[in-house]
Amino acid sequence: MKAHITILKDLLQNLSTHNISHILDTGSGRASLSTIISSFPKASVDAIVYPGDERKLSTIRDMRSDQVMVVEQDICETPVTAHYDLVVAHLLLGEASKFGNAFQDLLQNLFSIQSRYYIIIDYLEDPKVDADAIRTYCEAANLKIQEYVCAENRSEERRVGK
């Protein structure tokens, strides 16, 4: 199993004792969604996918889960106004430029989503991912990083939890 999925499972397991009923999976994909719904089988999950990203949309639709509501939206263009118990950004920030957005803008819009907890998982060695910017943003916004761990999987990965 890839290290980033193991990290996601561990982080979700750590939150399993909290009252998590409404989850947002940003930049959603089949791997993260499957892990989220198996960890929180009673929660509703909004899955945001960049508009027209068929590589993700088709696999999510194939899951046919009643728990998941797919939303095609660019969060840099249209802010998310709903409140969530948990926001997951699994391999999202490194893809900012793929869809014409800047890392800093995507990071700012991610943290503008109202939530009790955030989980961010990305590759540290990805030159498009600025781990220091994430830490700096968390400090400036008074967000407490509860875990920051790296794992090897032919590359380093990071995880940050609020």
Helix content: 25-40%
- What's the helix count? 5
The strand order across the widest sheet is 3-2-1-4-5-7-6
Query: Uncertain spans, ≥5 residues at pLDDT below 50?
Result: 155-162
What summary fits the major beta sheet? 7 strands, mixed
Compute the number of strand runs.
7
What does this structure look like?
The chain is globular and about 35 Å long. A seven-stranded mixed beta sheet has the order 3-2-1-4-5-7-6, with helices on one face. The C terminus is likely disordered. The chain is built from five helices and seven strands, in the order αβαβαββαβαββ. With 162 residues, the protein is α/β, with parallel strands linked by helices. The two termini are 25 Å apart. The relative contact order is 0.18.
Give the topology, please.
Elements: H1 3-15, E1 22-26, H2 30-39, E2 44-49, H3 54-63, E3 68-72, E4 83-90, H4 103-111, E5 114-123, H5 131-140, E6 148-152, E7 156-161
Helix pairs in contact: 1-2
Task: Record keyword descriptors for this entry.
5 helices; seven-stranded mixed β-sheet; 162 residues; alpha/beta; 32% helix
Summarize, please.
By secondary structure, this protein is α/β, with parallel strands linked by helices. The chain is 32% helix and 28% strand. The protein has 5 helices and 7 strands.
